[in-house]
């Protein structure tokens, strides 16, 4: 096959996808020489290397990922497991992680555990069966024992983010949960609120448990008591947040303010108040741990603890790349800072 034929697209190899042998034939070299030229290995004359590169470009040659995996014993893929792919937080974290991983030569395989342990276990087993090189996991609450039962026999490094498995994996990236909740409670106290309730997320997850503990601690620090029934344990869903808010509003002495532990729970609270004719912030103040990208578009705009969710993904991916490239690196824990974003849902001026 000539270089002119390769460029014209008239040859059959072009239609079926060019092989290394096709590149070698067009360049007039052996397959081993073509391989060295394409991989930048070995001492080759510049004219030879240029001829191989020109032939590869003309043929639109794409190296086989399967062959590369067999040669290097790596798949250049990373598993990404989250409880809910529809969550704005996890979507943004995925974008951040993907940019970092692709820059390091890895592709992402996304799995949704659907907020269940069984779904998370199935996702982990599927990814390990696919021989991924690493795992990024926001757990639904696996115990260390259960995680090691599923993944302990593999040397695949795992970095947890958002919700963690204690003493497991190669590293972790968490949000600054306690200071974030403290900021929200103190801000409501500054507005004069004493009857403050919380829509707490799943207590099986470290993020949910830490935010509830932080709420109780912040209430005590401000000399406030958590009234009976003011803690509502929810799934991380809008429907669960709505149901929890309905229960709070039905109390004989309902709260005057609510801390939502996630954006989904805050949306559920807004929906319940709208359906029940409860005016925000006049009848009920609302603040949220999470500042979703649409927070300032809600009515009223949402006061929240904000952070960059993409940075969570980037930081987790960076830890994983380090671990995949150097398995002897010590465990590292990263905490992403948060800040208070004041809007009208708490009673602040617009």
Give me a quick take on this structure.
This protein is an alpha/beta fold and 350 residues long. It contains 14 helices and twelve strands.
The total of helices stands at 14
Radius of gyration: 27 Å
Unreliable stretches (pLDDT < 50, length at least 5) are 10-14
Total number of β-strand segments?
12
Mean pLDDT: 90
What is the topological layout?
Layout: H1 3-8, H2 12-16, H3 20-27, H4 31-39, H5 46-59, H6 65-72, E1 77-82, H7 88-103, E2 107-112, H8 117-129, E3 134-137, H9 144-151, E4 158-161, E5 171-175, H10 177-190, E6 196-200, H11 206-221, E7 231-233, H12 238-249, E8 257-260, H13 263-276, E9 285-289, E10 303-306, H14 309-325, E11 332-336, E12 339-341
Parallel strand pairs: 1-2, 1-3, 3-4, 4-5, 5-11, 6-7, 6-8, 8-9, 9-10
Antiparallel strand pairs: 10-12
Helix pairs in contact: 3-4, 3-5, 7-14, 10-11, 12-13
Tell me what the structure shows.
The chain is α/β, with parallel strands linked by helices. It contains 14 helices and twelve strands. The strands form two sheets. It has a six-stranded parallel beta sheet, sandwiched between helices. A six-stranded mixed beta sheet has the order 7-6-8-9-10-12, with helices on both faces. Helix 3 (about 20-25) packs across helix 5 (about 45-60) and helix 7 runs parallel beside helix 14 (about 310-325). It is elongated, with a radius of gyration of 27 Å.
């Amino acid at each position: 096959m000539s270089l002119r034929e390769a460029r014209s697209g008239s040859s059959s190899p072009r239609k079926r996808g060019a092989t290394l042998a096709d590149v070698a034939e067009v360049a007039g070299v052996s397959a081993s020489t073509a391989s060295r030229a394409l991989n930048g290995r070995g001492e080759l004359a510049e004219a030879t290397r240029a001829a191989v590169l020109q032939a590869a470009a003309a043929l639109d040659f794409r190296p086989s990922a399967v062959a590369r995996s067999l040669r290097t014993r790596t798949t250049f893929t990373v598993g990404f497991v989250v409880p809910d792919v529809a969550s704005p937080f996890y979507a943004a974290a995925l974008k951040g992680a993907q940019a970092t991983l692709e820059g390091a030569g890895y592709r992402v395989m996304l799995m949704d555990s659907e907020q269940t342990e069984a779904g998370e276990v199935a996702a982990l087993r599927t990814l390990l069966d696919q021989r991924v090189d690493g795992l990024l996991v926001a757990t639904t609450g696996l115990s260390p024992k259960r995680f090691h039962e599923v993944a302990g026999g593999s040397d695949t490094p795992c970095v947890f983010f958002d919700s963690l498995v204690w003493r497991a994996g190669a590293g972790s990236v968490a949000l600054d949960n306690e200071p974030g909740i403290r900021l929200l409670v103190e801000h409501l106290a500054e507005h004069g609120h004493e009857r403050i309730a919380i829509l707490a997320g799943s207590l099986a997850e470290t993020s949910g448990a830490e935010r509830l503990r932080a709420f109780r601690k912040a209430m005590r620090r401000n000399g406030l008591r958590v009234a009976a029934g003011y803690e509502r344990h929810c799934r991380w869903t809008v429907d669960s947040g709505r149901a929890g808010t309905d229960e709070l509003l039905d109390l004989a002495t309902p709260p005057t303010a609510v801390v939502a532990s996630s954006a989904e729970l805050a949306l559920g609270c807004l929906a319940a108040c709208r359906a029940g004719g409860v005016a925000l912030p006049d009848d009920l103040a609302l603040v949220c741990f999470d500042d979703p990208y649409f927070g300032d578009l809600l009515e009223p705009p949402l006061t929240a603890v904000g952070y960059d969710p993409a940075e969570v993904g980037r930081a987790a991916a960076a830890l994983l790349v380090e671990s995949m490239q150097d398995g002897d690196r010590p465990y590292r824990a990263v905490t992403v800072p948060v800040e208070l974003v004041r809007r009208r849902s708490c009673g602040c001026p617009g």
